[in-house]
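To: structure desk
From: M.T.
Subject: fold request, one chain
Message: Could you run this one when you get a chance? Sequence is below, nothing fancy, just the single chain.
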Amino acid sequence: MKPDTFHPKLSTGRLVQTQFQTVKFQSGRLKKIHEDGWAFIPNLMPNLDEVLTETKSLLSLHEQATAMLGRLDGSFQNVPGGLSINPWVLYKPLRMREARLSSKIENTIASATEIEAVMVMPSERSEPLEVRNYFKAIEMGAQDQGPINETMIRGLHKELLSGIPESEKKYPGQYRPSQVMIGDDDESFSDARFVPPPPGEVPMLMQQLAEYMRNPPEGMPSLFVAAIVHYQFEAIHPFADGNGRLGRMLITLSLCNNTLLSRPLIYPSGYINKHKQQYYDLLLRVSTHGDWASWLGYFLKMVIAESQGTIQRIQRLFQLRQDYLGRLDNKPRGQRFTDAIDSLFEQSMTTVKMLHNRIGGTEQTVRNYVDIMVEYGILHRAEGTQRTKIYFAPEIHMVVDED
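Reply: Done. Structure tokens follow.
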């Protein structure tokens, strides 16, 4: 990392000398390489006065974003009549979509079908399991009613790496013990795009971050708090792996923590995927130039765009459920059949046995339901599953797979 890329009157942190160690092939042998360089330690997070001078022009955008979050939260309350499950379950495809897109930002690619399949049958690819872990971590965070703290953050990180091959080398649930850098793998330490703090600084920085979330500055808008916390988390880069995914997850959870949402319904990765380079550039510019205004503006636009998109997807999921029921020529099938339809939104890849465990009744009745859903195009049979027939709902997967 080059010190001359940082403004000489740096206000958001300080540069310190550090040492980076890596292993490289030289002359056909593995060698440990030690390289001296610079790392960035972010300051304490700003109070309202420190950011307000730059962000007065953003107050109108902040009002729009807050209003859109209100509309989004209202969408969760307005559930269709006759819904036999908690609407939170119906929104599961949205959380699966966020898991897929957040992982895609890190070049971990998996389709909805692959993500669901790892819960039903073994996979030779680790990518679907990584995305599935992200989804499970969102679920875990959503169920935790307490404030976001270090214990919760470390627990979410541990869930992200659960069952991943050689994950122990990434220290699941533990702060990183060594220096890391952000940049291309073949770059030297001195040419890295960004170098976060030395590992010895991480525990205190994370304590300060948790305290800021618990007791934000008086008068600081909650959306500003969420944006500042996200920047700070990424600048600290507290873990050896998974910082990007966990940081984006904390955006969603922090908006619930600050009572802007009753449930974690906003998922930022769709917008970030479309504006990925700008996202990285603006985070870096806060460190190099103290440019809070540009980062906060980006963050508010993301909230507005993703709130609107999520509202539309919620409506599509409700409509898809009604369409499923309407395909049966309006012939009454009973509440248990409706339960079977609704359960697809919770687990859109299933077997007769799995569905039977969810809705009860006799196994033959459930088998008949599956045959009906296949006949009307609600379920398709997965190819290559001869011993146990596995079925999936392709139209639900389409919602998950859209960018």
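Reply (cont.): DSSP finds 17 helices and five strands in the chain. Let me know if you need anything else for the meeting.
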